[in-house]
Every structure is written in structure tokens, then in C-alpha cells.
Specification:
Keywords: Cell membrane, Lipoprotein, Membrane, Transferase, Transmembrane, Transmembrane helix. By secondary structure, the protein is mainly alpha-helical. The chain is built from 12 helices and 4 strands. A hairpin with a 4-residue loop joins β2 and β3.
Length: about 300
């Protein structure tokens, strides 16, 4: 292990011209005097507002699985689910010690949110609204899933602006490798930007294209499956460039995969299953094959 780290350090330090995060002039928030408004908080807010706006817009189209009042309920409960689930998920998956220190657990402003925990919280919120409103849960998920990458895109960009969750040391000639203030002297992969591109922008383009230019929304579970599986694949790939949490480095070395990769495996499987089932089943509004065959026209 030591020779490997030495080789990595030697190659990384030989990088011709590393970029420095400090030279970008970025700040970790907006100083309002009494407190600092963190970019991460603004990223969550922007993602939720854009998701609400997009879902509300889609409800004007024929075949929508819910009414505007349901979207209003989703906005409230999903916000709670993302925040509570994200924080509790971070504690459960990455920092179990927080569970025994409730005072530290509530300090959201100090960072520490898990996407997987937020996803679970948001899913439970959608299940509650669907059950209470007697809605088709999977179709509700289809309409919400399309807009989730908004939050992922802004969230990962906020990670980069905050200079946190940086990548592994860059080996070889990586022109965009960057030295982060808390990441030591080695130039590293800006894995936050990789995640913003794949989990956010690319996934957003794919889902928006499917929703607005095809009849994918009439295949129950297809959009949800594309989102869940697509995110899982993107996150699994980027984890090869992302530095594992310090407290989980031994876990990653022992199991061969990071915690983030292990958590995405079920997502990839579930996403693939949803896509297959959606493509095999008859889309909503399509006439049964027997009825078509007996039509005299």
C-alpha cells in the first residue's frame, strides 16, 4: 500500500500545472452579517423550486397522474423527506457516531447529507401523498423523477464551490486536476464536476427528452427506472475518481468498493427491472391486442 501511495504522490506532484481552488476566488456562501447563507442551502432551495415548477407544468398535460393540490403536498413533504432523510442517511451510512450525538446531528449548516438517504425520505413522502390521495405511486414517481436532476446538478456544483468532496489524486497528465485547500498538496480530480455533469446535466437531458419528445410518460415506471438506474450507473463510475470519506477508507479497501458504490448497486438493479417491466407492459391508453384484431376497420 505504501509503495502504491508513493507512486501516486510522485505522479501527482509531477503534474505540469495544477489548478488551485483558492485562485478561483470562490466563497462558501453569502455573508449577510448575522449569518452566512451557504451555497449548499441555496442549491437545495433552487432544486426544490425548479422541481415543483416542472411538475406543476407537466400536470397541465393530458394523462397526468395527479392534480395541482397533490403537487403542493408533494412540495412540502418531499422537502421534509429530502432534508431529514439526507441527514439521517449521512449519519447511518457515513458517520454513525452522529446518531449518538443528537446535538451534532441537527447541525445541517456544517454539511453532511446523503443522496441515498434523501432519496429514501423523498420516496416515503411520495408514498404518503399517493396513499392519502389514492394516486398511482409509480406514476407519481415518474413525474417527479424527471425533475430531480435539477437538485443533483446544483448540489454538486455547490460541493465544488464549497471546496468539499474532492476527488482522488490525479495520476498522469490531467490538465483540469485541482489542488483543494483541505485536500493536501496533491492535485486531485474535481469529481464534484464529474457528478454535476453525469448525475445532473446528462441525466436531466435524457429524462427531459424522454418526457417531452416521446410517450415515455405513458409507460408506467419507465422514467423512474431510467432515473434510478441512470443515477446508479453515473455514481458508481464517478466513485472511482472520488475520494472516499476518511472514516470509510478502510471499508473501501477491504470490500473493493466505496460505500457510495455499494449503495448504488441496488439502484442499478431496481432501475433496470423497472425499465424492463415498463417496456414489456402495454402503455397506458393503448387498446388491447385482442380488441385491435377484432376491429372490422
Amino acid at each position: 500500500m505504501i509503495p502504491l501511495l508513493s507512486a501516486a504522490a510522485a505522479q501527482a506532484t509531477s503534474h505540469p500545472a495544477p489548478l488551485y481552488w483558492l485562485d478561483l476566488g470562490l466563497t462558501r456562501g453569502i455573508d449577510l452579517g448575522l449569518f452566512t447563507l451557504r451555497w449548499y442551502s441555496l442549491a437545495y432551495l433552487a432544486g426544490i423550486i425548479l422541481a415543483y415548477w416542472h411538475v406543476s407544468r407537466t400536470l397541465r398535460m393530458a394523462g397526468a397522474p395527479m392534480a395541482q393540490r397533490h403537487a403542493d403536498d408533494l412540495f412540502f413533504y418531499c422537502t421534509l423527506g429530502v432534508i431529514l432523510g439526507g441527514r439521517l442517511g449521512y449519519a447511518a451510512f457515513y458517520a454513525p457516531q452522529l446518531l449518538t450525538h443528537p446535538g451534532e446531528l441537527v447541525k445541517l449548516w456544517e454539511g453532511g447529507m446523503s443522496f441515498h438517504g434523501g432519496l429514501i425520505g423523498c420516496t416515503l413522502a411520495m408514498a404518503w401523498v399517493s396513499w392519502r390521495g389514492r394516486l398511482n405511486f409509480i406514476r407519481v414517481c415518474d413525474y417527479v423523477a424527471v425533475a430531480v436532476p435539477f437538485g443533483l446538478l446544483f448540489g454538486r456544483l455547490a460541493n465544488f464551490v464549497n471546496g468539499e468532496l474532492w476527488g482522488r489524486p490525479a495520476l498522469g497528465d490531467v490538465p483540469w486536476a485541482m489542488v483543494f485547500p483541505d485536500g493536501g498538496p496533491l492535485p486531485r480530480h474535481p469529481s464534484q464536476l464529474y457528478e454535476a455533469a453525469l448525475e445532473g446535466l446528462v441525466l436531466l437531458i435524457v429524462l427531459m427528452t424522454l418526457f417531452w419528445t416521446t410517450r415515455a410518460r405513458f409507460r408506467t415506471g419507465l422514467l423512474t427506472g431510467v432515473f434510478v438506474g441512470g443515477y446508479g450507473l453515473a455514481r458508481f463510475f464517478v466513485e472511482y475518481y472520488r475520494e472516499p470519506d476518511a472514516q470509510l477508507e478502510e471499508f473501501a479497501a477491504r470490500t473493493g468498493f466505496s460505500m457510495g458504490q455499494w449503495l448504488t448497486v441496488p439502484m442499478i438493479v431496481i432501475g433496470l427491472a423497472l425499465v424492463v417491466i415498463a417496456l414489456v407492459r402495454r402503455p397506458l391508453g393503448a387498446a388491447p391486442a385482442q380488441a385491435i384484431a377484432s376491429d372490422p376497420a
